[in-house]
């Protein structure tokens, strides 16, 4: 029994020694795993950079896909204009309801992809634009319908309409052809005022009926005599009157008409505007666009 009792302290001593050794080893291990603050900061910085790179890589395909969708929507709209018969079919009332709703659907699809958030101050707005589509209540279509409802197409024809926008002024030109031999232009000058990033006001200033130009090769034989007499009569007029006739007939329009409209889509090639009734007008550019490097800084009242 004595030998057994005497061995107990020895076992306790071994256990104590082993426990102490294990404790020391554990403490040493903990000290080894402890990281410095500088290491933590560097690791966090690397993680942030990695996240930014991943976002950039993921964002590039998304932007590319959106741009491809926008270009596809533009091409689809231009094809819809062609399928509907173009501007002449529109102003003569030959466009069907199905064609109209199809064009309007494609206009709406393009508007939601508008790449210009502030079109009223964008340099893309200035330049020469051709009217591709005008709504049923627009002033341009009303004037065209007035001509076609009162004169047969062989007597009077509206071939196209275009507008020149420069320095917050617009000149809208309607190209008319009479008897398929006489070309004339009706020009309306307007003033544009910026009222917001999307909204503008248009005030009509003056209308000019330019002196007609005769295409002699297309004049019917039975009208050549009458035309020759008319030219001779004009040449015999007093110089002031002849000059006035040559410069065109001017009709003052100040205070007679104005309208508000919103630019719902604008890029280097297509312009879409809507009036207060929501009726769309679509125009395509005829000249080279202005460089977008320096945006206009024109101020407007909110």
Automatic annotation (TrEMBL):
Entry keywords, A to Z: Plastid, Transit peptide
Domain of life of the organism encoding this protein: Eukaryota
Entry's localization field: Plastid
Domain Plastid lipid-associated protein/fibrillin conserved: start-end pairs: 95-279
Record has Transit peptide as a keyword: yes
Pfam families assigned: PAP_fibrillin
Entry-linked InterPro entries: PAP, PAP/fibrillin_dom
GO CC aspect terms: plastid
Family named by the database record: Belongs to the PAP/fibrillin family.
Protein name: Plastid lipid-associated protein/fibrillin conserved domain-containing protein
């Amino acid at each position: 029994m004595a030998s057994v009792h005497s061995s107990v302290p020895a076992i306790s001593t071994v256990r104590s020694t082993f426990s102490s050794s294990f404790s020391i080893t554990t403490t040493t291990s903990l000290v080894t795993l402890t990281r410095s603050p500088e290491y933590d900061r560097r690791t966090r910085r690397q993680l942030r950079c990695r996240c930014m790179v991943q976002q950039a890589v993921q964002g590039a395909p998304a932007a590319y896909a959106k741009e491809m969708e926008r270009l596809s929507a533009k091409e689809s709209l231009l094809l819809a204009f062609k399928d509907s018969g173009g501007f002449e079919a529109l102003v003569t009332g030959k466009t069907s309801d199905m064609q109209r709703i199809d064009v309007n659907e494609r206009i709406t699809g393009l508007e939601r992809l508008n790449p210009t958030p502030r079109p009223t101050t964008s340099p893309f707005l200035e330049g020469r634009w051709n009217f591709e589509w005008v709504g049923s209540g627009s002033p341009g279509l009303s004037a065209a319908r007035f001509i076609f409802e009162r004169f047969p197409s062989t007597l009077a024809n509206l071939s196209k309409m275009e507008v020149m926008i420069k320095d917050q002024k617009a000149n809208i030109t309607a190209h008319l052809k009479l008897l398929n031999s006489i070309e004339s232009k009706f020009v309306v000058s307007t003033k544009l005022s910026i009222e917001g990033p999307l909204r503008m006001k248009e005030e009509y200033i003056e209308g000019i009926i330019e002196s007609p130009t005769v295409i002699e090769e297309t004049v019917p034989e039975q009208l050549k005599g009458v035309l020759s007499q008319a030219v001779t009569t004009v040449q015999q007029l007093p110089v002031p009157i002849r000059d006035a006739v040559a410069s065109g007939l001017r009709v003052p329009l100040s205070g007679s008409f104005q309208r508000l409209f919103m630019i719902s889509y604008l890029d280097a090639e297509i312009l879409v505007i809507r009036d207060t009734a929501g009726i769309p007008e679509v125009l395509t550019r005829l000249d080279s666009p202005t460089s977008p490097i320096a945006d206009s800084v024109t101020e407007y009242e909110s």
